[in-house]
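Example record

One chain of 394 residues, shown exactly as stored in the release files.
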Amino acid sequence: MSLFRKKPVAAFEADMKKSGLNRVLTRWALTSLGIGAIIGGGIFTLTGIAAHDYAGRVGGKAMLWFITASLASLLIGMVLVNWLQPGSMLQGATADEAGLKDLAAKTQEFSLAKFVEHIIPKSVFEAMATNEILQLVVFSIFFGVATAAIGERAKPIIKALDIVSEIVLKIVGYVMNFAPIGVFGTIAAVVAKSGPSIFKFYGYYYLYFLIGIAMLWVLLYGVGLLILKNRMSDLLKRISNPLLIAFSTTSSEAVFPKLTTELENFGCKDKIVSFILPLGYSFNLDGSMMYMTFASLTIAQIFHIDMPIGTQLTMLLVLMLTSKGVAGVPRASLVVVLATCSMFKIPEAGVALILPIDHFCDMFRTATNVLGNALATSVVSKWEGELSQPVDTV
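Predicted structure tokens for this chain:
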């Protein structure tokens, strides 16, 4: 039984298609260039994991935390959308029964069986041409592990991939600077069609997103309190400055040096911090993970696409894989959301609707990501018996 309401298909997609510039910017920058970022970043990260001395015991504990935290974050976003129905705030749709049947049929195509079929790439070049993100992730995993197994001879390849990733990220950054122009045209078209209801949608969308973030913080704090005991409050005090910087700059990379120092002062050994923290930046993005399901399912609701619970759970499995290795990509969450919408035949034009408010959501996402990685590093240190007394008092 689906928790999504069955309604006519919204007319918004046709309106958004009128804004050609936005469509070009969104699809090219976030999808095409995102492919390069996912491949390069994923291979580079996995190569580092496999080659590290801690890839066994400590890496296993870290991945256990990352997978559990990611799954919990994704589930929070899914439950929130089914409960609060943020996509239903956009009304004024016109009846289009033919469009409804077409979109519903395409959406149902992606079942668990299809998910398994999509995992194994027939050809990496075909996967790139057809935007099969999941196959590219699987290819990156095998390529990264095999590259690490070669050893010293693979260093030129690793260095080249790192450079390619940086180049792609720079290009995405350039293109995203022009995205507001297309977004303005998109929102203007929607307002002209449906009136000011779009602003009501933004208000509820942001409010419901903050509820999800609050739920995630409560969960992280509760688990941290359970494992770290009375030291959890000390951890929050120490990382308060990095959290504030991450919130204001929407950049978790900007606080990496400061966060490293604070975690070492908290009592985490530098060898664990230097391994877990960079790993977490690719595999432990709690705030972003919650937002990915929240945004993807909200877009499906906007277009009144009926998605059974089974399909939604399949989407969670897809997001567990496609969200890894995109650290450092500008608006990485939107890259993954757009790819997910494409895979599940959800109109990609819906991504343009959430772009105007995405920056404000990104502030809370980034701060939550920093909290999650600081907590993961501290917890793994505790599990390893490597959490010593603080260097100084706060």
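Notes: The domain at 12-19+54-117+194-383 is CATH 1.10.3860.10 (Proton glutamate symport protein).
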